[in-house]
Structure formats: C-alpha cells, structure tokens
Specification:
Layout (H helix, E strand, L loop, with lengths): L33 H17 L6 H8 L8 H12 L12 H16 L5 H12 L1
Length: about 130
C-alpha cells in the first residue's frame, strides 16, 4: 500500500482530491489515506470506460495493465476474472457498486498481494458517488 495508492496510479499531472501536499515519489501519486487512492482508482476506471471506450473488462484491463508495461494483460484479466467471477466480455458500468467494488478489490489485491481493507474501499465508493 505504498503511498496510500493501492491501485498504483502513476503521476500524470492530474490534481486529485486527497493528495499529500508534497509529492516525493517521482512515479506514483501519494495520497493522505488509502480511501483517496481508491477513489482516484474508481474515477480513473470510469474515465477509461466513458471517455476511452473501454467498455468490456478485457479492454479496460488491457489499458489498465498493458503488455507494454512488462505485464501480461491476458494473465492480469484472467486473475481479475478468477477473483471476481466476471468474464473478459463483462460490460463495465462505472456506476454499478456490485461490479465496481469487486473489480477495484481484485485490482488492489493483485497490485499489493494482499486483501484491501474494505472500510477504505467502501469509504472511497461513497466519496466517488458524490
């Protein structure tokens, strides 16, 4: 859970709510607590679906964890499917808590090799909803 950034969001210049005032990691955002990191993850996934057209789980995760980053996007997708019960063809609705919460939990679990604290994820979902 390095940097309270459980989904390992890379720095892009975006000014997220809940960022630490001083960003000392040159590669990844640093958040005040994990809930803000999860919230940023929910928003990033939503933007990939709505603005980049990544409507299926496979397309979404191919952009989230691309082969170009030294990852195997198909293996990453298979791991998410195994953890969530979703399929690569599952259509992503970024407003569906029953889909998005397990998806973010699975991504966090893969990225951090441990189960996330559900209180942080649920707090982030409430912040994401508005």
């Amino acid at each position: 859970m390095k940097n309270n950034n459980p989904l390992h969001l890379r720095r892009t210049g975006w000014i997220w709510q809940g960022l630490c005032p001083r960003q000392t990691d040159p590669e990844e955002y640093q958040f005040r607590n994990p809930a803000y990191g999860y919230r940023a993850g929910f928003i990033t996934l939503r933007n990939l679906v709505w603005h980049r057209g990544r409507r299926t789980l496979a397309r979404l995760l191919t952009e989230w964890a691309p082969d170009a980053d030294g990852r195997d996007a198909q293996l990453y997708t298979a791991r998410v499917c195994a953890l969530t019960g979703l399929t690569p063809r599952t259509l992503i609705d970024p407003l569906d808590a029953n889909l998005m919460i397990p998806l973010v939990v699975a991504i966090s679990r893969i990225e951090n090799r441990q189960k996330p604290r559900m209180l942080d994820v649920l707090t982030a979902w409430r912040m994401y909803q508005g």
